[in-house]
């Protein structure tokens, strides 16, 4: 059988070398190309962070302007893509639609694509970064039966997304700068997180030399699960189920009960056992947005009280279960009117740069190999097969 380490969940397996993102889970540190996440989230735009993740250095003003121009230039999708949308049920989950339509991009960008050519990989990055907000907004518009909105390249990345989400052809959509900034910050705080399940999926899929648009679709599928990107949606659904502040203790008890599979969604993290540095910035943004928009939503009151109780409860303190990034991002998105089913789609949009940066890094490595884990076989030992007619 040869030698290998049995490591279910890859708790102790380093799958690659990477110079993109550094995490120290015990200290609550997250650095992108060496830059602390809190500084990036508060002092840089999402597109600047994308540049940093992709190229490794902060851009000069001229480099940034060119990068922004290139990204905003590719925002439209091929008109044929509209037919893919029409094939879906109106009530299809937008993540299901995203798995399909992003994968479908591979049919438009395949024959002339040479993934061993650095410039071709760069163009793939531009295309994905540009088209993800368009596809994401289209998946929402389709579900509510409104016309697809064309992108507006003169707006910011976040502003354009909000325009395509909430704009209608009959009137000019005014982007609220507070909402725009919060949206941009949500994108930044989800941009990359080293070898999480979806990024590892993209790397594994890409390690065989597969089409990058198809690989990103695989990443979207992996992200969808409630233990990963689906947590922000699951968290808001949980808040709805709790419904009122007086029912919180009942749910806290359920979460602590070993015989009950219920978990507090939006709490805990595989790597961060001290605090999630993204959650700290997100928490601050969340409180700012709620205050500035003056939204009175009983669900938000439940969220704030749940946060307070869980942070002071011995079980959560002892098990180091803090609110994670998805707890606060869900509340912000709810406050700015984004439907719950779109939460994970927005996570996927934001993480696309991380996925593509890792895919690019992997293919730039001359020692790159196809990913091929081993297994511990626990099935039947060798035995004689009896043909069907004798059984
Ligand atoms: N509520 C109640 N108990 C919990 C929770 C929770 N949210 N999370 C972990 N625990 C308990 C768990 O029951 C276990 O208890 P015991 O030691 O008595 O068996 C202990 O804490 C350790 O849990 P684990 O499942 O072994 O830890 P993990 O590192 O494998 O899981 C996690 C991490 C994020 C999957 C888990 O904390 C969880 O399911 N959280 C809720 C889902 C969630 O919010 N996920 C988003 C993660 S952040 C976004 C992203 O990176 O995708």
UniProtKB/TrEMBL annotation:
<dbReference type="InterPro" id="IPR016143">
    <property type="entry name" value="Citrate_synth-like_sm_a-sub"/>
</dbReference>
<protein>
    <recommendedName>
        <fullName>Citrate synthase</fullName>
    </recommendedName>
</protein>
<dbReference type="InterPro" id="IPR019810">
    <property type="entry name" value="Citrate_synthase_AS"/>
</dbReference>
<comment type="pathway">
    <text>Carbohydrate metabolism; tricarboxylic acid cycle; isocitrate from oxaloacetate: step 1/2.</text>
</comment>
<dbReference type="InterPro" id="IPR010953">
    <property type="entry name" value="Citrate_synthase_typ-I"/>
</dbReference>
<dbReference type="GO" id="GO:0006099">
    <property type="term" value="P:tricarboxylic acid cycle"/>
</dbReference>
<feature type="active site">
    <location>
        <position position="326"/>
    </location>
</feature>
<dbReference type="InterPro" id="IPR002020">
    <property type="entry name" value="Citrate_synthase"/>
</dbReference>
<dbReference type="GO" id="GO:0005737">
    <property type="term" value="C:cytoplasm"/>
</dbReference>
<keyword id="KW-0808">Transferase</keyword>
<dbReference type="InterPro" id="IPR024176">
    <property type="entry name" value="Citrate_synthase_bac-typ"/>
</dbReference>
<feature type="active site">
    <location>
        <position position="269"/>
    </location>
</feature>
<dbReference type="InterPro" id="IPR016142">
    <property type="entry name" value="Citrate_synth-like_lrg_a-sub"/>
</dbReference>
<dbReference type="InterPro" id="IPR036969">
    <property type="entry name" value="Citrate_synthase_sf"/>
</dbReference>
<dbReference type="Pfam" id="PF00285">
    <property type="entry name" value="Citrate_synt"/>
</dbReference>
<keyword id="KW-0816">Tricarboxylic acid cycle</keyword>
<dbReference type="GO" id="GO:0036440">
    <property type="term" value="F:citrate synthase activity"/>
</dbReference>
<keyword id="KW-0812">Transmembrane</keyword>
<keyword id="KW-1133">Transmembrane helix</keyword>
<keyword id="KW-0472">Membrane</keyword>
<comment type="similarity">
    <text>Belongs to the citrate synthase family.</text>
</comment>
<feature type="transmembrane region" description="Helical">
    <location>
        <begin position="327"/>
        <end position="349"/>
    </location>
</feature>
């Amino acid at each position: 059988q040869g030698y290998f380490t049995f490591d279910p969940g890859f708790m102790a397996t380093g799958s690659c070398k990477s110079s993109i993102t550094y995490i120290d889970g015990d200290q609550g540190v997250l650095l992108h190309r060496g830059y602390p996440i809190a500084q990036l989230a508060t002092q840089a735009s999402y597109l600047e962070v994308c540049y940093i993740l992709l190229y490794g250095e902060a851009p000069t003003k001229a480099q940034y302007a060119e990068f922004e121009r290139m990204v905003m230039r590719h925002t439209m999708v091929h008109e044929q893509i509209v037919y893919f949308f029409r094939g879906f049920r109106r009530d299809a989950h937008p993540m299901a639609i995203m798995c399909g339509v992003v994968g479908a991009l591979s049919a438009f960008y395949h024959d002339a694509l040479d993934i061993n050519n650095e410039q071709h990989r760069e163009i793939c990055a531009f295309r994905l970064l540009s088209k993800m907000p368009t596809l994401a907004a289209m998946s929402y518009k389709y579900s509510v039966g409104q016309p697809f909105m064309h992108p507006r390249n003169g707006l910011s990345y976040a502003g354009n997304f909000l325009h395509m989400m909430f704009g209608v052809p009959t009137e000019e959509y005014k982007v609220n700068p507070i909402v725009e900034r919060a949206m941009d910050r949500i994108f930044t705080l989800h941009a990359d997180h080293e070898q999480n399940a979806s990024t590892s999926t993209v790397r594994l899929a890409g390690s065989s030399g597969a089409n990058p648009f198809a690989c990103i679709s695989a990443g979207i599928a992996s992200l969808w699960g409630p233990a990963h990107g689906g947590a922000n949606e699951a968290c808001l659904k949980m808040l709805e189920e709790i419904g009122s502040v007086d029912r919180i203790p009942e749910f806290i008890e359920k979460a602590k009960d070993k015989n009950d599979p219920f978990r507090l969604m939006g709490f805990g993290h595989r790597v961060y056992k001290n605090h999630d540095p993204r959650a700290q910035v997100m928490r601050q943004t969340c409180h700012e947005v709620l205050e500035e928009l003056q939204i009175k939503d009983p669900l938000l009151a439940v969220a704030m009280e749940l946060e307070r109780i869980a942070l002071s409860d011995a079980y959560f303190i002892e098990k180091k279960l803090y609110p994670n990034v998805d707890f606060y991002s869900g509340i912000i998105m709810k406050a700015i009117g984004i439907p719950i089913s779109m939460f994970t789609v927005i996570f996927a949009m934001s993480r696309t740069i991380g996925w593509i940066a890792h895919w690019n890094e992997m293919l730039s490595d001359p020692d790159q190999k196809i990913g091929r884990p081993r297994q511990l076989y626990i099935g039947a030992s060798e035995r004689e097969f009896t043909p069907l007619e004798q059984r």
